[in-house]
Fold each of these.
Amino acid sequence: MRFRRRVRPLVGSHLALFCACTLDTYGISDSQGGATTTSKGSESTGSTPTSSATSTGSTETTGDVTSAASDTTAGPDEGGCGAPAPGESGSLIRLVKFSGARSQVLHGAALDPQGNIYVVGQFDRELLLDGSTMATSDTQVPFVYKFCPDGKLQWARHGQSTDLALEEYKPEQYRLAIAADAGGAYITGRLRGSVSFSTVSLKPSMPEAAFVVSFDADGQPLKGVLLNAEAAAGMDIAVDGDEVFVAGMCYAPTPLKPTGILLSKFNTSLSLPEESHCVGGGSGELGRNTTARSLTLRPGEPTMILGGTVLIPEDPTAAAEWGPCDGGVVNNRHGFVAEVSRDPADWASAETRWNWCRVFGSESNNEVVLDTAVSDQKILTALATGGSAEALGTCGMVSPAELPGGLSFAWAALDGGGSCTHAEWFPTIWGSGYLFGVEPAGPSEFYLAGRFDKTIDIRNLQLTSLNQTFFAARLPLSLSSQVTWHVRAKHTSDTQKSGATYVTANDSAVVFLGYARGIGELAVGEDSVEVGTDDEHQGASKQAYDSFLLLVRP
């Protein structure tokens, strides 16, 4: 079972796209629909978020009131909410396009216990969806949408911001993250300027800060808090019962102020001072930061699963803070997955903080764990890497002699003690293949979301394309079993790009987030939607891209 956001993220540089595109499903099998899965957004039934007095201690909040008249779109489509209609495994439920004059980025999604879907992202000046328009003069505008289980729009809320420190979508870029429970949703991110949602307004006194904003189930913003001065960016957020956890990046309280992993805890009303800790890493150059990118809770369990990047510090005292994460090369970037105590009293000491830690990579490679998921006793990880086969050699399952000719994306499954049980890489020809998301599909299968470039070989399923290409699939954990079903984009021009950036699921729907650049269509089954028309982009189609929410039957 899984309770959290996913990491969410990831688009490259702007390129001209003048092409047609379709997104099709392939290889639909007789596998059982409705497998037992759990969302990255929490399914817990914790207390409903409530408005409260300003926090004390290390958090800050202000209450500058702004008009809510223009930043909310309410009401589901005609007919109200409903469950997805029954259908064949791997078939389309709904495809929803986010478009506008410029670009839109979907950062993450979460499912609540009723199956409602929350999506968080950013847009540049204008956002169009299902007949509603959001418009602002700002360029980094955060938004939250809530959809019914069948994909119909319930409400939309956008904020105002001066600097969310968000740039083009890349595998290691800062992002917004979202979690949900029965009472509403929580978002986190990085703030360098100010951000406001109606009556909630935040402006840090430090150059950059991590923040959290809560919303009720009807889209009303309830409260916002800034984390303490060390906290630079919230990268993931999760909720279980009456507890909210944030993981991300911080600046360690040492003279050199190296980046480290941030751990923070709140109650669901965000009314208590946050408890947090910063575990510093090596100094590294820009873009090689130590940070936690993924946070997964197991309901009622005393521990949580973290994934991200670590530069093992050169200083022995600082390195000791990483405890069992000792398999890496000093000051070389490695992906890591760790089981960490949920009790903040344990965070200050390496002896009590870590249950175990698995480090991926070698001296010659730079690795990042982009996503984690938990199913029964399996911990799934998604890796972005410059040499996945060698990285997985640290699992003792793939020989470095099997290094692919090009770059690849990879995943690994760990048992409850952090030992590798499965590991697999999928070779690609060019250097932009990434696996951005993993999600369990019952005890013996899982979903993945990513992109491949030119060609990819997945268990004898050989795919070709003209450029970066959306790819999503359901696979058995058994490496000898074939792909259950998959979805991919089909390009007609080598200037078009697309990708799947996020996945979460429950027993009635698999939620994929993606992007597409170009003029044409995305289609799955009988559904299709036009992407990136000249009229929408007002002459800016060379720079702009559209994002989309894809719902597929398990």
Amino acid sequence: MKIIDNVYLFRPDKVENMKDIYHLVIDNGIIQGIHKGCSHKSGDEVIDGQQRTLMPSFTDSHIHLLRYGLMKKELDLRKVTTWDEVKMIVHDEYLEKEMEEHEWVVGRGIIDSQLKDIDHLLTAKDLKELKLDKPMFFLHDDGHECIVNDVALRIIKKDKDIAKYHDRFIEKDEMGNWTGRFKDTAVHFIKFHFREKSEEEIYQAVLAGLPHLLEYGITSVHTDDLNYAGSYDKVWKTYTDLEKQGKLPIRVYLHHYIYHLEDLENFLENDPKRTGDGTEKVRVGAIKIFLDGTQRLHTAAMRKPYQDKPETNGELIYTQHQLNEIVQLADDQNMQVTMHAIGDRTIEQAITALEKVGTAKMRHRIIHAQVLGHDLLERLAKLKPYIEIQPSFIMEEHDRTANWVGNDLEKYCNAWNSVDHLGIPYTSSSDSPIGYLSPMLGIHAAVNRTDLLGQPEGGWIPDEKLTVRQIASAYTETPAYLEFQENFRGKIEIGYAADFILLSENPIEVGSQDIKHIEVMESWVGGERVYKK
């Protein structure tokens, strides 16, 4: 038995006196008692909470944990500002004579549109300046675009399926030659088929990422790792091995990315596990599907042409019939579906597919849902799929959104308070390593709708601000429903798992612009402390 003594409580689902001190009684990883005042007991089982604020620990319902861990071991180019700096970093890291035979030069997080010393986007031709006769792969910060060199192009072209199925996402010059730039599903294809990691690399990358989760109070993740692993079995083995070895301090739900209906059929035929099945800490998540691209690349599918690129309204990856088939089969086989859908045309397509199967049984999800409309909100309110939002995205995109969608549609972008008001369930997440991993930064963005400097003043579309309680619930209680664990996790209640964090300050009581400064002092999972600052 343990007693967590001398703490304040912040329970997003309850309004209570924030000045009351409590102590919690925990036994066998379960909360057995919640009592006002300090405990009268003493001894090793009593842990002094030092009047920290105790709240449920966070769930990140949309993350790429393997990719995040890999970034800790590969070139991080997120902060470079010049092409010369990129070349210097690569040359400092890679010496051809010391590289293994099949090793690639890999950089992640590059934003080549912001490089100050060149006036064009990088292509394979530019990568020749690195003077390494090795395949190269540079991934954009948002994960939806990559640049490869001529050596990599020769390898990639050997697989005819990339041109057969992903030709529209392969950039070509005026002569029809591949430039070395790829978008959206073509990027996923390259990662899956040519950037596959060994079991040891996957193991070490996941292990490297775990401490960062605990530092931010994240004790459960829903992660899409298949692109870099090559097989679901390999991902499953990594996480369950870590669990058996006592090295997995969090709870994990593993998504299965698919492209074709046949991918889903193969999984269902060869793996008996379904959503929610697994071990104590590792369980099957959802079938993951990309329905469109991004607004930055003008590949998110819109119902009207882009304001700043009127010759296009984006790309739907599937026909309605193809998507209906995938969703229907998954639902019939008790697999949850989670769909990447950013543009309003894509969200409409996802809604139509879900309306045919319903959402009550499997609690299907729509990821991002960034561009909505009055009609879409009405349909979502009736259907009630779970929307997975990423608040930190608006800190980087708020000043570009109107350029993409136009002023009339801007008010329906990231319309989280409207979603909440209509009773549409939603969770909050990072999409890390694309977005900020810290939930506190996500809470800051949702409550203020500003960047870290407080801009724009008063917040972007302030009517869509969320309260601290609303967004905190989206990080704690609501994700437990997606896990079918709503009677076990996500709350500080008797009978629930003792998954909680201790905060330096109460997010309800600080100024809204100070939320981002709140620190996680301790993280607990199943009644065991797994992190202490």
Amino acid sequence: MNPADGDGAGPAVGRVGAQPAAGGVGAQRRIETRQYERADAAKRRLLVVADSDSYVKWGAALASTLPTRWSARLAIVASPVQPSRRQLAAALAGTRFAPVDAPVIHLDELDGLVDSFDPHAVLLSLRGPFVRVVAPRLERRADRPVLVSGFPGLTIPAVHKAVVYREQTDLVVLHSRREVREFRSNAAELDLDRAFGLATLPFLAAPAAGAEPAASDRDSGVSIRRSAAGRPADATDLVFAAQAKVPAERDQRLLVLAALAEHARRHSDRRVVVKVRARRGEAQTHAEAFDYADLLDELEPRDVPPNLVVEDGPMGEQLARAGVLATVSSTAALESVALGLPTLLIDDFGVSPAMINTVFEGSGLFGSLDDLVEGRFCRADPAWMHDNYFHGPDADDWLRRLDAFVSAREIVPLRPLERSHNLSGGALRMAFERRRMLGEHDRSLLGRVAWGVGVPARGVVRRVRRLRRWAAGGAADAAGSGLETAAGGLLDPRRGRAADGLLDPRRGGAGDGLTDPRRGGAGDGLTERRNRAEADAVR
């Protein structure tokens, strides 16, 4: 980190160091300090406010792509999902920030930080429900800063709730042409006039040393970096990018481990790495029910080849040693494609919104656990890449849009951003939302009251909704249309629904056990609904 860029944690004078009490050298340094402070003040300032490890990584990486006319600071709001020291170091690797530059603050301290730093813009690098909590605090400030939000990874299919959570921000940063189209469509349906900006996913933005785009990629207009000359000769690892949410079931994860173990046995000269985001006891953006390290410990030692390991740390470091990558739907697949690595998206458990992998349809990257065992990996289709995350830097417009907002703010205060959705419950609802995000870090009495009232009430509402869905499903079955309602895969066998196994035993669904006893049984449909609900809750 270069202090001259104004990227550190404190104001400029704090980075210059102690000054001599008197004398020519001291006077000269004081002059230089004042000049530096004036130059730093002339810059535009971005404050990044983050919560979980994935949002810290995204916010820090996006801020690191800003040109030198911008300075940036980073703060983490104390919450149940704040990263550990180890996770923080991994999240900030390769960015303009070091862990010392990322103080953890209480939400009530945010106003003071904004007062002291006086940012032109604030990037709310937060989960969707947390944006809804923090944005109103900043929106009601006199001469408020520009409010920016976004997503740290895949957001297809775009859901309305993701827009609603961010309705009190001026600019939402997205990472593909397709995402921008779908979010604009959702905003129009919600009658929300918000700006959506396109940015290359920051993990893909900076080529590695020695990386050079292939001529065919340049000619096709697809943004990708190759690394043939820049990669070490021993970069042969198979990296499996694990995710907290998918696959959700224990048996499904054991199937993945079994396939990885068999590949490791067949390729004893290659390390097979299960790359996890968190160690036991560390928080993540999404809760993880079945930890891969724990599952591996449960296996008989004779079933675990010595070259099959579980590791954490920055994904970039893992990919630097990788020859291939496999995952169910991790954003790491995009990093792998960007590096020109053969990649495999495991589709044994379905291609569905619940598996967070529908965006990869048409990519040419899907394959089975059998393909994983045999070492059959894929290359992404250039046409898919052009519309999904590899659009080329000339298409990026988020910074231009941000600069336009900042310039407008210098002339006249920005317009109010009113909350227009989910208004029932008033102050009690907002206190509940705050308590839900902050957990025990919420100091307010109203939050405790709202939590005591809201949790039971929410449970009742959810049970009523489940009963209504059950009743509607039963009525549809009685009418002879239940097959279409409960097993949407009959309409599109590529999408994992409740009975997709009737058509394709490799796809995830409640009926899979009927055709393939290794797959999740009759409860899989419930798992899909749960996963989809959890995805909506954090977008």
